[in-house]
Each structure stands twice: as structure tokens, then as C-alpha cells.
Design brief:
By secondary structure, the chain is mainly alpha-helical. It contains 20 helices and six strands. 55% of the residues lie in helices and 5% in strands. The protein binds zinc ion (2 copies).
């Protein structure tokens, strides 16, 4: 008994099943407070707090700023290094990214690099294979097993003073940019302190959180896989609309260091547009793009894979190498004994069941029985369609030794027993 207890003590809580008596130990209370408890309390306050028009506009504007802090900052800049940003832009992105209340850049990027490195495995911190809701937010609500942690290199982030500063002062950053700043703007701007706190502060960051979480859940669950279907990432316009353009996730997992998620101009990717504008303003540089040739190669290979899978499901007739090899004389003898066999291009076809369905009539096809009808089939009488060639191949039953009648006659003069 004592031994069992010692064993249990060594076990991490995540290795024990969730029960009524231990469920609270499974919960990551800090994350749960920030992503669920505070937003739920805010929802309860909504009926008692009127939404003023300027506050609504400000909440939407700040939603986009803080959303971009995550998509253009946390994700495309720090997790993937898909472009370079000057100090001013990095400080802005670190502040507004912090204002979306999703952990520090260091925490977020380490998890995200693990997600790319170990996609769909137990080491993927938000693997969709553990369930859609788990990948969306339960991975933060519940503690994670440290033994399943996918380790990644974040030494580059430790050398960025903005990242280090933001990580060290993270609680101040979320208090300031998650709550105080949006509240103070509304309060000093048009006297709406309470609305600023509730709508531009808490509910705004709740919506940004939910939108970002969709990249981990919805983008691995809904849509097409034009570049690779071995793992779960998918492309869908709905996910793109929700996530400021992060919805072309199949492309993103294939080409993660590309600063774009959407490669066509008409696709919705405001994060890409923002980075491009920052470049024009001299705030960002070295925007990375994969060569169009490499992207098209990936697309064509996936198309080919799909075509091959479809092709494999169709009946193309017995492969030639698996057909029996028959001498010309045996072929003729079989045909004379009543089998409706026709030789075309060195291959014997059994047309017994097809004679009455032959679009060119019964007489024509019957005239080829026991003969080499290659010329007849390929234009001597009628140049058959591609569909006819396909149909014919499904009727093949043997291959003629030497290729055909003429070959046999020629050989006969040399060697009589062929
Ligand atoms: Zn992903
Ligand atoms: Zn990514």
C-alpha cells in the first residue's frame, strides 16, 4: 500500500484520471481565469453596461491591433521569423500582442514551434487529434504532462531584448494593454470608463483569444488540403475571416517561413497586407517568400496524389504482365471452338458479353473473331474513341507470343515448333 502511494506521489497529476475529488488539481487556474472566468464574469455585466458607439468603434479598432499583435507579431515575426521588424514595430507588437492576453511571446512561440515540429503527435501542445475542443482551449484549461512536452530551440528569442522584457513583465503588460489602456482611451476620450473596461478591454480580448484559438482548432479541422494531406492543417476562407488571414493553414504548415498565408491577391490576409505596409513605411524588412515554382510543385504533387488515388479505384483491366502468354495457333483454335476472342495490338480480348452491345453492330465485331483486328480497330473501319480503348482493356484475357500473327508466320520458317 505504501509502495502504491509513493508511486502515485511521483506521478504527475495529468497521469491520473480526472475524478470528482481531484479535478481542481488538473486545472491550470491562471490560464482558466484569464481565458474563461474573467470573460464569463464580463458577460454577466453586459446587461448592466450600455455600449456607446465610440466605445464599439474603439473596441473593434483595438481588436484588430491586438489581433495583429498575435498574427503578425507573435506568429509570423517571432515564431517563424518570416520578416524582420525594427525596434519600434517590435515594441508595438509586443505591447498589443500582450494586450490579447495569450501568454508572453516566449511562451507562445515555444508552444507554436513545438506545434509545427510535432504536428498531430502527443508532443503537439494543441494537437487536434486530442479533439477539437482540446485543440481550441482545453489544452490551456487543463495542465499538460511535462513528459509529453515537445522541446524546441528558442535561443533566438532569448536574444531579443523586447521578447525578454515582455516575458519578465508579462503581468504588467497584460494589465496595461489588456485592460487599462483600452479603458483609459474610452474614459479620457468620451467618458466611458466602464464600457471601455468591459467592451474594449475584457470582451475584446476574449474575442481575440477565441479567434486565435481557431487557428489551432478550426484550421486543423475545416477545409481543403491543396499542398499536403498527410497531417491535419487545412485551408478555409471562414477560418481566414475569423483569424485575420491565418486560415490558409495547409499552405502555412508547408511554407511556415513565408510571411504570407494567402498567396493569391484576392484571398483575405490582412496580416500579410499589414506587414507589406510596414515594409513600405520602413518599419519591416526582409519579407520572406517561397519561390512560386516550389509552391506550385507542392500543389501539383498533391493533385497528382489525388489523381493516383482515384485512378487506383478504377478497373483498368488485368495488367499485361499478369496475362497468360498464348501462341497464335492456340488463340485461333480457341476462337474456332466457340470463344469470341479478338486479337488487337498483340493482346487477346474476350468480347463474348460485348458482341450484342457493340455500337458498330454485331456483324462488324464478329468479323474480327479469331483474327488480328488491330487495323480494323485503329481506323481500318472506324477509329475508336478513348472510351472504347478503355473498355477494350477491361476485356483482355491474354497476350500473343511474339506479338501477333505476322510474327508467328515469320518465325515458322525458321523454327517449326514455335
Ligand atoms: Zn497549425
Ligand atoms: Zn505557424
Amino acid at each position: 500500500m505504501a509502495e502504491v502511494e509513493t508511486k502515485n506521489k511521483k506521478q504527475h497529476i495529468t497521469e491520473q484520471p480526472i475524478t470528482l475529488s481531484n479535478w481542481y488539481q488538473h486545472v491550470n487556474w491562471l490560464s482558466t481565469t484569464l481565458i474563461l472566468i474573467v470573460p464569463i464574469l464580463a458577460c454577466i455585466a453586459v446587461p448592466f453596461t450600455s455600449l456607446k458607439f465610440p466605445t464599439a468603434v474603439w473596441a473593434i479598432v483595438y481588436y484588430f491591433w491586438t489581433g495583429l499583435g498575435i498574427t503578425a507579431g507573435y506568429h509570423r515575426l517571432w515564431s517563424h521569423r518570416s520578416y524582420e521588424a525594427g525596434l519600434l514595430l517590435r515594441v508595438f507588437l509586443a505591447c498589443v500582442g500582450g494586450g490579447s492576453v495569450q501568454g508572453s511571446i516566449r511562451f507562445w512561440s515555444a508552444k507554436h514551434r513545438a506545434h509545427h515540429r510535432w504536428t498531430d503527435t502527443v508532443k503537439d501542445p494543441y494537437s487536434v487529434r486530442k479533439g477539437l475542443v482540446y485543440s481550441h482551449l482545453m489544452w490551456m484549461v487543463l495542465k499538460q504532462n511535462p513528459k509529453e512536452k515537445g522541446r524546441t530551440d528558442i535561443s533566438d528569442l532569448n536574444h531579443d531584448p523586447v521578447v525578454v522584457w515582455q516575458h519578465k513583465n508579462y503581468l504588467y503588460v497584460i494589465l496595461t494593454f489588456g485592460i487599462l489602456f483600452p479603458m483609459v482611451v474610452a474614459g479620457l476620450g468620451w467618458g466611458d470608463w466602464k464600457g471601455g473596461l468591459l467592451y474594449a478591454g475584457i470582451l475584446r480580448f476574449f474575442f481575440v483569444q477565441q479567434a486565435t484559438f481557431c487557428v489551432n482548432s478550426l484550421a486543423h479541422w475545416l477545409g481543403d488540403q491543396p499542398f499536403d494531406d498527410r497531417n491535419s492543417p487545412r485551408d478555409h476562407v471562414i477560418t481566414a475571416l475569423v483569424t485575420l488571414g491565418e486560415g490558409y493553414h495547409n499552405f502555412h504548415h508547408e511554407f511556415p517561413s513565408d510571411y504570407r498565408n494567402a498567396i493569391d491577391w484576392w484571398q483575405y490576409d490582412p496580416t500579410k497586407w499589414s506587414i507589406w505596409v510596414w515594409k513600405q513605411l520602413g518599419l519591416a524588412s526582409n519579407l520572406k517568400q517561397f519561390r512560386a515554382n516550389e509552391i506550385e510543385k507542392g500543389r501539383v504533387q498533391q493533385l497528382q496524389k489525388k489523381v493516383d488515388q482515384k485512378r487506383a479505384r478504377l478497373d483498368w483491366g488485368t495488367p499485361l504482365e499478369r496475362l497468360p502468354v498464348v501462341s497464335w495457333d492456340d488463340f485461333v483454335a480457341d476462337a474456332q471452338s466457340g470463344k469470341a476472342l479478338i486479337a488487337i495490338a498483340g493482346v487477346i480480348h474476350d468480347v463474348t458479353d460485348f458482341i450484342k452491345e457493340h455500337p458498330g453492330g454485331k456483324a462488324l465485331i464478329s468479323s474480327g473473331i479469331g483474327k488480328d483486328a488491330t487495323a480494323l480497330f485503329n481506323g481500318g473501319v472506324y477509329n475508336h474513341s478513348n472510351a472504347a480503348h478503355n473498355l477494350l482493356s477491361s476485356m483482355r484475357v491474354g497476350v500473343i507470343r511474339g506479338g501477333g500473327e505476322v510474327e508467328i508466320w515469320r518465325n515458322r520458317g525458321i523454327k517449326s515448333d514455335v
